[in-house]
Amino acid sequence: MGLLNLLLKDPLAFALVAVPLLYSVVIHEVAHGWVANRMGDPTAKWLGRLSLNPIKHLDPIGTLMLFIAGFGWAKPVPINFNNISDKRKGLIFVSSAGIIANILLAFVSLLFFRLSTLASSGMTAILVYYLVQINITLAALNLIPIPPLDGSKILMGIAPKETQYFLARLEPYGFFIIIGLLYLGILDPLIGFFRWIIGTLIGIVLP
Question: Where do the domains of the chain lie?
Answer without folding.
Answer: 3-205
